[in-house]
From TrEMBL:
<dbReference type="Pfam" id="PF13531">
    <property type="entry name" value="SBP_bac_11"/>
</dbReference>
<comment type="similarity">
    <text>Belongs to the bacterial solute-binding protein ModA family.</text>
</comment>
<dbReference type="InterPro" id="IPR005950">
    <property type="entry name" value="ModA"/>
</dbReference>
<feature type="binding site">
    <location>
        <position position="87"/>
    </location>
    <ligand>
        <name>molybdate</name>
    </ligand>
</feature>
<feature type="binding site">
    <location>
        <position position="217"/>
    </location>
    <ligand>
        <name>molybdate</name>
    </ligand>
</feature>
<protein>
    <submittedName>
        <fullName>Molybdenum ABC transporter ModA</fullName>
    </submittedName>
</protein>
<keyword id="KW-0500">Molybdenum</keyword>
<keyword id="KW-0479">Metal-binding</keyword>
<dbReference type="InterPro" id="IPR050682">
    <property type="entry name" value="ModA/WtpA"/>
</dbReference>
<dbReference type="GO" id="GO:0046872">
    <property type="term" value="F:metal ion binding"/>
</dbReference>
<keyword id="KW-0732">Signal</keyword>
<feature type="signal peptide">
    <location>
        <begin position="1"/>
        <end position="31"/>
    </location>
</feature>
<dbReference type="GO" id="GO:0030973">
    <property type="term" value="F:molybdate ion binding"/>
</dbReference>
<dbReference type="GO" id="GO:0015689">
    <property type="term" value="P:molybdate ion transport"/>
</dbReference>
Length: 276
């Protein structure tokens, strides 16, 4: 009787052991730690490759640079986060942050300052040129025909900041070259933060002449433009440079190469002078 009583218990124990073993085998087959971690590692690598870059760009270059950045993102998936400001402010931002990937100011003097500070690596350019031009309200009420006319008594001038903006610095080089700086300074109503604001203020009726980049002459129904004699004008090169504290050096170099290939045509489309 004892043997007959114990037999079912042994069978049940054997069934439970076999069932547990089978469950463990199925679980191991469906859950492989190495296989599950592999997609995560691949995703982390892809995310790192597509991390955004940061660019410091002159305010007057906003439209062409934005188009170039959008095309680059379409091609590579890499977004460029951008600070648009006057070149002096951009230098201050870099000195404070000590980070970023690309620097594209409005002229070479700001590149030189950044280089002397040890911020710059590889450089491309000139991509285009900052070309000063005189703008006036529609109808040219002060009858400006050449840059020397800005020195005439009674002319009310709006100028881009002569220390913080590339265009302001260039304009004063031209005034110095012509020996009219003192007379022009007497006619300056105010300094604007950027060349774009010079145009905005003139359209609002403040002043009757100003200096800005020739590409900004877009409101033809509200402004007139007087090109400066090439014999006295001083176009500034617009470069694009890689920053030494970039954490994405290879990606930044790739963007520089893209800028060299695509930049000139896009800047020309937006009214900038180029070497081509």
């Amino acid at each position: 009787m004892g043997i007959l009583f114990n037999q079912p218990i042994k069978n049940i124990k054997l069934f439970l052991v076999l069932s547990l073993t089978l469950l463990l085998l199925v679980g191991c087959a469906n859950t492989t730690p190495a296989e599950q971690k592999a997609p995560e590692n691949q995703q982390d690598s892809a995310t790192a490759e597509k991390a955004p870059m940061f660019a410091y760009v002159g305010a007057g270059l906003k439209e062409p640079f934005s188009e170039i950045a959008a095309l680059y993102e379409q091609k590579t998936g890499v977004k460029l986060e951008t600070s648009f400001n006057n070149s002096g402010a951009l230098l201050n931002q870099m000195e404070t942050a000590k980070k970023g990937d690309i620097f594209m100011p409005g002229s070479m003097p700001y590149i030189q300052k950044a280089k002397e500070a040890g911020y710059l690596g590889e450089m491309a350019g000139p991509i285009a040129y900052h070309t000063p031009a005189i703008i006036t309200p529609k109808g040219n009420p002060a009858h400006i025909t050449k840059i020397e006319d800005l020195a005439k008594p009674g002319v009310k001038i709006i100028m881009p900041d002569k220390e913080a903006t590339a265009m302001g610095k260039t304009a004063f080089k031209i005034f110095d070259k012509l020996g009219i700086t003192a007379q022009v300074e007497k006619n300056i109503l105010t300094y604007a933060e950027t060349p774009m604001k010079v145009a905005e203020m003139l359209m609002l009726g403040q002043g009757n002449a100003g200096i800005t980049e020739i590409s900004m002459y877009k409101n033809r129904d509200k402004l007139d433009v007087i090109e400066i004699d090439p014999g006295v004008n001083m176009p500034e090169e617009i470069p694009c440079a890689l920053l030494t504290f970039s954490t994405q050096q290879e990606q930044a170099k790739d963007f520089l190469e893209f800028m060299k290939q695509e930049g000139p045509a896009i800047f020309a489309k937006h009214g900038f002078k180029t070497g081509s």
